[in-house]
Design a protein that fits this description.
The chain is mainly alpha-helical. Helix content is about 55%, strand content about 5%. The protein folds into 2 domains: about 30 residues; about 100 residues, no CATH class. The relative contact order is 0.15. Bound molecules: calcium ion (CA). This is Annexin.
Length: about 140
Amino acid sequence: MHKFITKYWMVILAGVLLSTSGLLALLWPKKKASDKVLDDVDENDSDLESVDARVIADALWLEFDGLGGSSGSKINKLLKGLSLADFKKVSEQFGTKYRDDILGGEGGWLFGNKKRDLIYWLGAELSDSEKMELRKINPNIPI
Ligand SMILES: [Ca+2]
């Protein structure tokens, strides 16, 4: 038995870690899915014209679509001053787009990736420090 443990301790440890993390994932309280955050927001509370929401959504897409991450300062400029209702309008104009999470741009449909909404794209394109910066500049943005 002792020999067995010394020989396979890494395998045993990995097994224990895996089953523990699996159990934790099951028991952990579920965070509200990012695509549900805007469900209760009424876009009629927004004064942003649909055409302006469209312009912002298009500019965000232009920034996102490039390979790798986005420039946080450009994203911040686009989202500055938006209310949550404004953001919902922009998000609706943005719609959902395939993201290749390896290359960081549009794509990945070959690998069965899902179409992603604006909140997902923001989370994936910005680094942790850029997200912090965005939250500081506009705490309404739900990322
Ligand atoms: Ca990108």
